[in-house]
Every structure is written in structure tokens, then in C-alpha cells.
Target: IpaB EvcA family protein
Amino acid sequence: MTIALNSTVEELLDQVNKIYPGVVLVHFGDEEKGYLRHDQAKQEALQGGIEITVTDVTAPNYTASHELLHLLMIMQGFPQIFFQVSFGDEKLDEQLMIMATDLYDVAMHVIVVDEQRKHNLIDSKIEALYIKGVDETLTPEIADNDDERTLRLLTLLDTCVFMGERIDTVATHLSELYPLAFKAAQTMYRDLMAKPIDSPFTMRRAIVKLFKQFDQQLNEWRLPALHTTEFTTLSTVVSERQLRLETRQLFEVFHSEMINKETGEKAYIALQRSDHQNSFVVNAPKENTDTFFKEMYDKTVQELLEEMHVPYIVRK
Model:
């Protein structure tokens, strides 16, 4: 089966290749499950480029454009996430990284899906395939305390973002199958969308909000929180004025119980004072730490970030 991208997605691929310093290629697999999920493509770094493989070709133009838009947003300076610390439990770390990445993607989908709709890459057929994918992913709620609540909340939150103003067309279906999770997801979605998400700064704010909202809901359900604000490093977005501030004015460093993956020692995590989000991890010396931190706090934000090779985004 030969698959060709439509003209809209070809133009998007050309746009990405004009910005990316290498070559971005799109290849197709041969699986066709008959439903849509956002795990039906993968990106692989190759020498001199990136290869996007659409592993499931149920809706190849939708899936390819989705991956290309994610890539384009990163190249246009939207925040990224990194995992620099560990709880010392490989399985737990992996679960938290998956959940944090999924939450990050939910926020990014606000812009990705909006762009896809603007270019007519989402229609009622794509919506039906997407909802079928939701039903393939989840089991119906059978009790207040089953072990799928976290997955349901995450999946249905992404569904609210995907459907947007058209959520009413599937609300009855989702309420019947997943009443608790869908209600919680709708509440989180309304809160998420209370302010525009249209720039790196507003995107970062939305990601942090999602991290906190999600833990709050898990706490209400008496489930273990993810602690994503501490575990996940999120790109800093700063203004020109903030770059000139002393580090102590913008960041607060605390000695975490988590482990710094690079050094194997207990991690020093720099939290942004305004939202308490992990913005970078500090490799502090074992000796003379008081002097080290005093000198660190005295530096301007720009001096410190550049000295430590911490990527940052300048707010426009």
C-alpha cells in the first residue's frame, strides 16, 4: 500500500525542513487498527536528521501532521521537558516520566490540535476514530476505587483538548462510560483554558498549571501524587528584565531527596519562585557548598544559566 501525504501536510513538512538544521523525513508503517491514538507515530534521531514513522496508517495525514506540529513548536521556542532526577526506583521513574510527558503533550495539544483544525485535518470522521481510540484505551468505570482512574483522567483530559468546543457531541457517551473521570477532566479543561495559550510563556504557565491540577485531583481521589513540579525539569521562560536580576530573586534552590542522575548524589533543584516549578538541576560541590551557593545567588540569571548551559527562552 502506497501512502502519499496530502498537499497541506507536504507544505507543513516543507516548513519544518526550512527551519530544522538537518532533514526531517516521514515514513509509514503498514498497521491499520481502525482507531486513532497519539501513540501511533514515533520520532527517531538519525545522523543529520529526524525520521518520523507513522506506525498506524488509519489516518496518515492526521497523525503525520500531529507529529510535525509538535516538532515545529519545539523549533519555534516552546518549552521542553527534561528528566534530570531520580527517585532511585527505575520502574517508578519510568512511570512518572511517561505521565509527565503525557501531561506536557496535553498542554501542547491545545495549539497542535487548533492548527490541525485550521487546516481541515480534523473532521467528523477523524473525531469518530479518535473517540474509538479512547474506548479502546479505557475500560468503563465500575467502582470509585479501581486502578485505572489516573489513565482515564489523563486520556479524557486530552479528549477535551482534542474535541474543544465540540465536546458536547460526545459528552453523553463519555459521561455514560466514564462519569467520574470525565467530570474531573472537564473541570480541569475549563481551568486550563481560562487564559489564552498562544506563546512559549503562556504554554509554560499552562503546563505548570496542569502538573498541579493533576496532583490535586489525585489527592482528592486519595491516590499518590506525581510530584511532577519537582520531578520534571521544564524550560525556563524569562524576560529581558528577569535575565538581569540576581539569581536569588528568581530562583530558590533546595536539597531534594531525589538523586541527581548526572552525579548520583542527592539533587539540588532550582525552583522558580513564582510557581515552584523545577527549572534546572544544580551540580553542587561536596565541599564549600555555602560559598558555592552564595556566589551562585549573587550572579545574574543570565550569567548563571549560560555558565551552567541551561537552555532558556526569552519572553517576547
User: Anything to note?
Assistant: The longest strand covers residues 251-260.
